[in-house]
Specification:
Layout: H1 3-29, H2 33-61, H3 65-71, H4 92-119, H5 123-158
């Protein structure tokens, strides 16, 4: 595996660590129990992604194509226990900010993986990067839906909801 390809996976790991740190900070800044727990769960999920990507990196670094093919058989880890209902609507300002930033992080990740896919000639890596892009796209859609709901509530609380 080329240094360029390994660097892409290392950057993906860093991106997930940044997500972990971001959600951990959001949890620390949140006073109410429910949103605090929600942000902690998101942080834990990012750590699971880091571990998964580290395994992928090890497979790629071993220079065996079979190892990369085996990684496609493993589902991307997720706790699947996060409920958007856990976000305390009393903490709307913080939640709007967190989800707004999360949306930007997901968009950048999608661009990153799409670019990596276009920059490789390796069919398996192309498929892998496309899978990661779809993974981030799902997150983006979830965050965008919640952001729109929270934004409407925030506007209403500020007394300047658009007509």
């Amino acid at each position: 595996m080329s240094l360029k390809e390994l660097t892409v996976i290392k950057q993906a790991i860093i991106n997930e660590i940044e997500g972990y740190e971001f959600y951990k900070l959001a949890a620390q800044q949140t006073q109410a129990d429910e949103p605090k727990k929600a942000f902690e769960i998101l942080a834990e999920e990012e750590l699971m992604h880091v571990e998964w990507l580290k395994k992928i990196y090890s497979s790629l670094n071993s220079n065996t194509e079979d190892n990369l093919l085996l990684t496609f058989e493993v589902e991307v880890p997720t706790q699947k226990i996060f409920s958007w209902a856990n976000v305390d609507r009393k903490s709307v300002s913080l939640a709007v900010s967190v989800f707004g930033i999360a949306i930007q992080m997901e968009r950048e990740s999608i661009k990153f993986y799409n670019s990596a896919s276009q920059d490789t000639d390796d069919k398996n890596l192309k498929e892998f990067y496309n899978m990661l892009s779809l993974w981030e796209q799902k997150h983006l859609e979830q965050f965008a839906d919640e952001y729109e709901k929270l934004k409407e509530e925030w506007w209403d609380k500020q007394g300047f909801e658009p007509m």
